[in-house]
């Protein structure tokens, strides 16, 4: 078929684009610790000035809190930009989608006043589907780990690991399969269930009822489903647009770079943005890392600066450190600059958002982990092996506390000098500018530094 152009025309058009039009850049927000750093809040802040907000990885293991006009929303699969009426929200191919979970989340947020979401939500046809039996298997594997190894991973039991495993083993089903012939889809689901039950005889699956529900969900999402690669291509190369990417989970939970095996199953670092949306690395613009002014972790695994004492308890209670997705208490400890440096090595942060500074307001002195030592010697890298990481000795610097309420501070000069000193110390140590400092839950409690 003729396109009415010679191949040379085509080549010169492509050449022109490469030279003159690399397209819009995307701004990325990523967790720099073990999750729950306040990504939702940072995304909400930037979403008010964005045209598109994208999720590129993870699933409803994420729990992102946004507080607007004293109303608190928690988002799991929906991009936090969904409350911004001017913004299109996009769920990319790298995300794993549990459709009952998605609709439960939508219903809950509609009750809180969310309107018109169906005009603003786009779902990639290449995203993989999380089935109820993936979630059941997630639970079963945790029971098995406890029985065999005496400990679990402490997953959210949202089926994330089993779904990504299915994807990697090429037996997964995607949104595009659900949009196509339903009887073919049903056969593939039944085959998958059979495969699972032969491997895990204890796994109980009501496949017929799950398929019945999925048939209904298929029609509800059909108007929202697009070719995700083309959607992103148009967003990047169409009219000037501000595109934001909302990372889920965090660097230390990344499947490659996190504290393996106590991690999630996706790339929560910057590479996951390209593979999870189908965009070139040259279109990545600013990469903002989000970190609390201290450290928390949900679930099992090494945590060198953890404080199993009164300090840890104070951070937990003052910070209301309870998981948004599972309601579990978060483990708490001092800020760890080794992990922030490590996250920066991987992500190349342009700037940092330092949240929850206000939680430190009452402390006499504040410690910051600045280096790890093994056998008395400083190590310049972040240890890969968990047994080694469990044993590192943390070298701390102690800074004076400011013992002043910072929650009403709205600009740099409102902060007490000792709090300013703490922020500068962190900034100098990571070598990345701190662009925002959080002193409370709501939108206006974010001090912008530049
Ligand atoms: P995410 O998963 O990274 O989006 O973070 P979560 O929403 O799971 O957890 C962050 C928690 O800290 C939420 O309850 C936020 O409302 C709260 N939060 C965020 N920033 C601040 C801040 O600067 N100060 C205080 N006090 N709370 C904050
Ligand atoms: P947000 O986006 C905190 C943790 C779980 C568990 C491990 C594996 O809100 O920051 P999974 O269910 O993913 O297989 O669990 O990862 N985890 C998180 N912890 N915040 C998150 O997301 C998390 N997502 C996963 O607690 O230890
Ligand atoms: Mg969270």
Structure notes:
With 450 residues, this protein is of the alpha/beta class. It has three domains: 24-124 and 225-284, Adenylosuccinate Synthetase, subunit A, domain 1 (Adenylosuccinate Synthetase, Chain A, domain 1, 3-Layer(aba) Sandwich); 129-221, Orthogonal Bundle (Adenylosuccinate Synthetase, subunit A, domain 2), CATH 1.10.300.10; 292-448, Adenylosuccinate Synthetase, Chain A, domain 3 (Alpha-Beta Complex), CATH 3.90.170.10. The protein is 35% helix and 20% strand. The strands form five sheets. A ten-stranded mixed sheet has the order 9-7-5-2-10-1-11-15-19-20, with helices on both faces. Strands 14, 16, 17 and 18 form a four-stranded mixed sheet that branches. Strands 3-4 form a two-stranded antiparallel ribbon. Strand 19 and strand 20 form a beta hairpin. The longest helix is centred in the first third of the chain and has 18 residues, at 132-149. The chain starts with 6 loop residues before the first helix and ends with a strand. Bound molecules: guanosine-5'-diphosphate (GDP), 6-O-phosphoryl inosine monophosphate and magnesium ion. 6-O-phosphoryl inosine monophosphate (IMO) is lined by residues 31, 35-36, 61-64, 153-156, 158, 160-161, 248-250, 253, 262, 264-265, 298-299, 324.
């Amino acid at each position: 078929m003729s396109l009415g152009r010679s191949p040379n025309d085509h080549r010169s058009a492509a050449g022109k684009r490469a030279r003159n039009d690399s397209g819009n850049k995307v701004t990325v927000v990523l967790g720099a610790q073990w999750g729950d750093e306040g990504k939702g809040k940072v995304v909400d802040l930037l979403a008010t000035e964005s045209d598109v907000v994208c999720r590129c990885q993870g699933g409803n293991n994420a729990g992102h809190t946004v507080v607007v006009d004293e109303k608190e929303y928690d988002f799991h699969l929906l991009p936090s930009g969904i409350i911004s009426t001017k913004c299109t929200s996009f769920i990319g191919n790298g995300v794993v989608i549990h459709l009952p979970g998605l609709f439960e989340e939508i219903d809950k947020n509609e009750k809180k006043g969310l309107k018109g979401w169906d005009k603003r939500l786009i779902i990639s046809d290449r995203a993989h589907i999380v089935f109820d039996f993936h979630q059941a298997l997630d639970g079963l594997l945790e029971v098995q780990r406890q029985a065999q190894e005496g400990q679990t991973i402490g997953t959210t039991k949202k089926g994330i690991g089993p779904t990504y495993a299915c994807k990697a083993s090429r037996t997964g089903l995607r949104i595009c399969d659900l949009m196509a012939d339903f009887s073919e889809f049903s056969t593939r689901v039944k085959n998958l269930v059979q495969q699972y039950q032969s491997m895990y005889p204890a796994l109980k699956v009501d496949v017929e009822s799950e398929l019945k529900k999925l048939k209904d969900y298929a029609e509800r999402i059909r108007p929202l489903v697009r070719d995700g690669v083309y959607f992103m291509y148009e967003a990047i190369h169409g009219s000037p647009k501000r595109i934001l990417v909302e990372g889920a989970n965090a660097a230390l939970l990344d499947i490659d770079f996190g504290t393996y095996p106590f991690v999630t199953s996706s790339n929560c670092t910057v590479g996951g943005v390209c593979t999870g949306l189908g965009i070139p690395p040259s279109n990545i613009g600013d990469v903002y890392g989000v970190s609390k002014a201290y450290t928390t972790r949900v679930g099992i695994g090494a945590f060198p600066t953890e404080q199993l004492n009164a300090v840890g308890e104070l951070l937990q209670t003052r910070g209301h450190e309870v998981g948004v997705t599972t309601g579990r208490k978060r483990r708490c400890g001092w800020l760890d600059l080794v992990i922030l440096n490590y996250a920066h090595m991987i992500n190349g942060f342009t700037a940092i958002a330092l949240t929850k500074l206000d939680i430190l307001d009452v402390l006499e002195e504040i410690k910051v982990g600045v280096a790890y030592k093994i056998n008395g010697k400083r190590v310049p890298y972040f240890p890969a092996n968990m047994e080694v990481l469990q044993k590192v000795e943390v070298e701390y610097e102690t800074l004076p506390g400011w013992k002043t309420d910072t929650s009403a501070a709205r600009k740099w000069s409102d902060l007490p000098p000792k709090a300013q000193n703490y922020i500068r110390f962190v900034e100098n140590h990571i070598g990345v500018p701190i662009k925002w400092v959080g002193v409370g839950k709501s939108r206006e409690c974010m001090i912008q530094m530049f």
